[in-house]
Write a structure and sequence with these properties.
single chain, about 300 residues, mainly alpha, globular
């Protein structure tokens, strides 16, 4: 009897949630809300609802019997992936627009493979190198296309997009390892978001941005809009992503499917009038996804 590939379905569903959530956050960013404020609001909303879900389902918010090593991995994963990575992603989104920022984020599998090569002794064969080349070629087709309205922030947006991809790659690897040694997907999602939120709040206090961010969150119903985007992109997206990382037949399969958000973001942005979808941008997205598949699938 055949079974539905639940991990793979969860990954595609997460990619769709991220695409929709990113487009909603993109509209908020265009109204002048700082990237850090958006990320903090998102983490507060998604973290609270995920914590409540965990409490109802399991009787506790965070696992009380998880190994210390798993909790430490999860904490680092939250800081790397959500405090740093997601804040950089929102900054890239403001500078470049959602489709280009989300495509830069999809380069995370490349950095995961390079990290394995440099620090874990994993080998990179010809297929992996071809995959990396295709990913970067696809990203270049989309990100480096002429766009006079965003020319000024191009370099900054690309740099932030790369930081976001590095954060997602590191966060995913650490999170998967934490689940392998004793934490379930929902608890992992809650733990990552709570730690990520605390880390971001600490940064806001140190940099004295806390008051500015708080003010930005509570004007023109911004927090309500962030709550809606956070529920779609973070509450649903992160839980589904954690499930896919645990249940998919491999990390490569999960990571590849999670990186398909641009396929959904471009046509949605085109229909909503946010970004015009061109042959070049469509070709770039498909090239990048083909590269991720070549890199990740074994």
């Amino acid at each position: 009897m055949s079974h539905l590939p639940l991990g793979e379905l969860a990954a595609v569903s997460a990619a769709i949630c991220w695409a929709v959530g990113s487009l909603l956050f993109g509209r908020i960013g265009r109204d002048g809300v700082p990237a850090g404020a958006m990320n903090l609001g998102k983490l507060l909303v998604a973290g609270s609802v995920l914590a409540l879900t965990a409490l109802v389902r399991t009787g506790h918010v965070v696992p009380t019997d998880a190994p210390t090593s798993a909790l430490l991995l999860l904490a680092v994963s939250g800081v790397v992936g959500l405090t740093i990575g997601d804040t950089a992603y929102f900054g890239s989104m403001i500078a470049l627009g959602v489709p280009r920022a989300i495509l830069l984020l999809s380069s995370a599998p490349v950095f995961a493979a390079l990290g394995g090569f440099l620090w874990l002794g994993e080998r990179l064969d010809a297929r992996a190198l071809l995959g990396m080349a295709l990913v970067f070629a696809g990203i270049a087709l989309v990100v480096l296309r002429p766009d006079p309205s965003r020319k000024e922030g191009l370099v900054r947006g690309i740099a932030l997009g790369i930081v976001a991809a590095l954060g997602q790659a590191g966060g995913s690897l650490l999170s998967r390892r934490a689940m392998q040694v004793g934490i379930d997907p929902l608890a992992a999602a809650v733990g990552r978001i709570l730690v990520g939120g605390v880390g971001l709040l600490a940064i806001a206090l140190v940099t004295r941005d806390a008051r500015v961010w708080a003010k930005a969150l509570f004007v023109r119903r911004t927090f309500v809009r962030i709550a809606v985007a956070g529920m779609i992109g973070s509450y649903c997206g992160i839980w589904l992503a954690q499930t896919s990382l645990l249940l998919a037949r491999s990390t490569g399969v999960a990571t590849t499917l999670l990186a398909t958000s641009p396929i959904f973001a471009l046509p949605i942005a085109h229909v909503l009038g946010h970004e015009k979808m061109t042959v070049r941008s469509g070709l770039g997205v498909l090239t990048a996804i083909a590269g991720i598949a070549a890199l990740s699938l074994r």
